[in-house]
UniProtKB/TrEMBL annotation:
Cellular-component GO terms for this entry: ribosome
Entry keyword set: Ribonucleoprotein, Ribosomal protein
Residue stretches making up the Small ribosomal subunit protein uS4 N-terminal domain: 3-48
Family assignment from sequence similarity: Belongs to the universal ribosomal protein uS4 family.
Identification of the protein by name: 30S ribosomal protein S4
Length: 56
């Protein structure tokens, strides 16, 4: 089974919630989701568009 060896905090920020992948760091104020509550990357701070209805 393969391991994901990239940044764990980046995954949390992409999902928008704490996944507790870094162990005790996620319980402190140093957690990146509490510092930067937006997705990682160049376009991360843009607003996500959530559709209330799905068009068929």
């Amino acid at each position: 089974m393969a391991r994901y060896k990239d940044e764990q905090c980046r995954i949390c920020r992409r999902e928008g919630q704490k996944l507790f992948l870094k162990g005790s760091r996620c319980y402190t104020d140093k957690c990146s989701i509490s510092r930067r509550n937006y997705a990682p990357g160049q376009n991360g701070q843009k607003r996500k568009n959530y559709l209330s209805m799905v068009l068929n």
